[in-house]
Hints:
The protein is mainly alpha-helical. It is 79% helix and 0% strand. The chain has helices at 3-22, 29-36, 40-47, 50-69, 79-96, 100-110, 112-142, 151-176, 182-200. The protein is elongated, with a radius of gyration of 20 Å.
Amino acid sequence: MKKEEKTEEEILLAAEELFLEQGFAQTTTAQIAQRAGCNSALVHYYYRTKENLFARIFGSKVQLMLQNIFSFDRRDETFEERITRLISAHLSFLRENPRLVPFVLKEILFSPERAIPYAQELARARGEFLRHLEEDLRAERSAGRIGDVRAEALLNLVVTQNISFFILAAFKRAATGHTLEDADYEAHCTELITTVLARLRPQ
């Protein structure tokens, strides 16, 4: 990698770390330069403004969420297998990117002028995902394999249970010092899969 490319990449990485740690508003160009080991003039040279850096990083993080959370349509699997993969993939995504969801939500809630285009993209992708999921659910209901479960309720169950798992784990870590281990993730994933599949069964 050329020196210029390395410097550009280091600036991008430093900005990403700082944005994830403390958000856009609290991050300065000087902090980015210090973290990257260069001067502010180089940050300006490569990216012009802090807003340009944020747009590049925030956009890439939204795309990462879209690719991981809403990748569901695999016709070589049974519906039950796809639901199981959805739950496991969402939990793994949160585990691998613990600061990402709070970062995206915070910027959407508190900096809508910067985040609206990405929030709209998330909403569009979520709507498309729910449309496909509802089609699958309708087909499964018609075949008598599941009960009357709606796509949005199913997605909300998975997302809220996984996010709650991490929130409660943070409280436990603060109170007792316990950090999540592989067995904790596996137990939660198994329990959630069992709960969701039971909810899908015809009553």
